[in-house]
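Convert to structure. Protein one:
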Amino acid sequence: MDSKLFPYKLNPKYYGDVKDFGDEYLEFCKKFNFKSEEESLEALCIGVYWYLYGSTALDLNSNIHQALANLAEYRRTFPEDKHFIDELRGKLLTKFMFKPYMKNNEELTEENLNLLINFLEATGDYMDQIPHFRNFTHELDDCIELTKWFCENSGRYLGEYTSNIEKYLENNHASHLMEEDVIFYHGHELEYHLNMLGAEIMNRIFREDFESKPRKAIILPGCMNANSKKCRANEDALGDVCTFCNPGCNVFKITKAFPNHEVYIVSHESTAFRGARKEDIDELGIIGITCVLNLISGGWKSSNLSIPPQCVLLNNVACKKHWLEEDIYGEIDCSELKLKI
């Protein structure tokens, strides 16, 4: 794997560019009479996923879907068995679902939307999106028209930040084959742009609720911990809490910089909020720090629990588990974090 290239990389212009794209997107959405900005995001997600994965979804054997969905649910219920389950899921996903992207001209009907949901459920990567798609009632043709507009315009605003993705995937084309994250790892550029725009729209949707909460928590990924193997953080119900063992660590710096707010390290998006109590759900607003392809799922995971989220992106991928030969130090635009908090 080539650790010198990243599938995306931000610079100081990014937050201005994605804000401008969000403004243009919401203006375009007015023609569809969506009942809310969140419904417009649901429509766009459905359309982009149908464009990228519809052909594979139509061909997916129902028995394979059920087997993979059951294994994904088992993994969530019994995380101690994850290594065994992930090995089996990786083989099934690579053999039956990892296919080259093909132009999808099939009509998006209610029946085909259900087949798309089956595909997404089988991957295990879209569980927080699926409830929104099951309850979607807007005209499906609008999802397609909105997606066409998005495909034509996202590159103007966001292409600069994903300019290396084709080279990155070309250099690492055999990576993660037979592994459970094979589809996640090989995500299309449009899916990066979807998550970037999605995070911007979610920040707007949930801002008022976030500001109304009496407690604010910053959720940091493990890659921002400079001393992860020797970290002395204390375990808490919502994540690990810094004990200030390393002044050079970004977790140390952020925890010191925001003494009036809670800061937690969460090793993986799938474990976020697992220990949340009723008082946490009632009182918390969170700022989640994550890499791009986790933005929409993480935002809806939080909001589905009635914890209003805000998002700040990692400047680039940083972990060995999914992306690189070796772990590197995850970094963010700290000025954006200050604005959000």
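Protein two, convert as well:
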Amino acid sequence: MFYKILQIILQIIIKPIFRIRINGYENLPKENGYILCSNHKSNWDPVFLAIAIKDPIIFMAKKQIFDWPIIGSAVKKLGAFPVQRDGRDMASLKHSIKLIKENKILGIMPEGTRTKNIDRENMKEGVIYIALKAKCNIIPVEIISTFKPFRKTYININKAIEVEKYLPLKSKEAMVKMTDELFYKIYQSHNEKLESSKDGNYNSK
């Protein structure tokens, strides 16, 4: 209930302020039980995702947030759970798999932290580990925004990364190739422009 109330407030106030445009609703599965991943440039990113996706998203968030006054309590009420970013947090990974099997939407920023640099090396493999273990698809989302009021923000929901085609592969190969596809799709417009650039010097700014 708390999530839904806050979501309505955000849609009324934040959506028009950031002129949010949402594309690709047809790429969302008809049933839940999947991972939602996006690029991560701003603290606004999870807010924008919550506005775009009708059903509640349970976010994996850095452990430190839960110690912040007021915000920590609010994040807990929204259903988010902590993850230790240094090393593999097995408890969080197991909890993530459990949520997916309960047909929840799991929200993860695969770069692990906010970043301004578009670089494959920023990608963490934890989300791929979860997808392979839970045998669930990943819905990649690209957020394109200046994060400044009254300038357009685009939330592009791209086609699913289908886990089935990676399951026959050896674990390491599956992790690398699936991460490659996820990186491409959370920066799809950037990567498509880069590919179509004649000299290969497309500037992302």
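Residues 2-17 form the longest helix (16 residues). DSSP finds seven helices and seven strands in the chain.
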